[in-house]
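REQUEST
  id: r-88c1
  op: predict_structure
  target: 2OG-FeII_Oxy domain-containing protein/DIOX_N domain-containing protein
  payload:
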Amino acid sequence: MMSNLQEWPEPIVRVQSLSESGQHVIPSRYVKPPTERPSKNSDFSDANIPIIDISGFYGDDDNLRLNTLNKISMACREWGFFQVVNHGVSHDLMDRAREAWRQFFHLPLELKQVYANSPKTYEGYGSRLGVDKGAILDWSDYYFLHYLPSNLKNYNKWPGQPDYCRCREVIDEYGKELVRLAGRLMKILSLNLGLGEDCLQNAFGGEHFGACLRVNFYPKCPQPDLTLGLSSHSDPGGMTLLLPDDQVAGLQVRKGDNWITVKPAKHAFIVNIGDQIQVLSNANYKSVEHRVIVNSDMERVSLAFFYNPKSDIPIEPVKELVTPDKPSLYPPMTFDEYRLFIRLRGPKGKSQVESLKSPR
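RESPONSE
  id: r-88c1
  status: 200
  body:
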């Protein structure tokens, strides 16, 4: 079915070019309905998602290890989001990866257009999600690429520019490190669910999981109170590791009726549960709605690394988590089928995974 989606339904406008045009009014295509605008229920207080040092999980101190597990367990159940520090990924690599992508987005438009994407795979340089004609759009451009499985990895679809910062090599090294970190976190999530440490990874297809990267570029916006950089959604995949722009806050996480603006810790990754882990955990862990606000003074770059199940194996609640008291909430569905379901509709809050629940 994706193969039918060869082209976007209307001409693509790069948000960065709108931002740089000097207009003081954003086009109506980007104006959100009043109930979705960022000033509604936004909480700019001191509340923040938990920041967790995960080095204790690898040491010899059993108490420290247990304490780390407990903190992550609580964060998964209460927030669906947490930040990790002392995670083993080089700070220099994190900075180089973000900077290489910032340089890419500041290349002349004609050089970036070489990598323009289509709805068929989404891979490349893009400016919209979803294929609804006339949809209200988000104030962002992005670059999406496949990292795993290796048969989907195509270096020619990765930016070769700017070559002075060795963009492709940096992306490859960064992906390798994030795969390693995600694998460790999967073990922690499994243990916290009372499962064997490899249970969730095995449900993802063992060594045959998927991984992809979406780099988000949020240009300055003359009317940030009318739009969003990314509409409210929960992540359709397994787990997301986000390298935020630690100079500019923008990510907001839903907590009850409020939107909490995340304050990124320097050299931390923001980790969140995706819909596939919600399904596997039979909703013991829930993916949480989040969105991105933009501002008029500063652009923002963030790197979202998605760690996903193998695309063609059915995902359903792990049998150990299905009991007479808590029957299976979800029918089996492959990640390919789920992703198509999302791509046709674009970001739609939490309605996607909720609509899959088995009727009672």
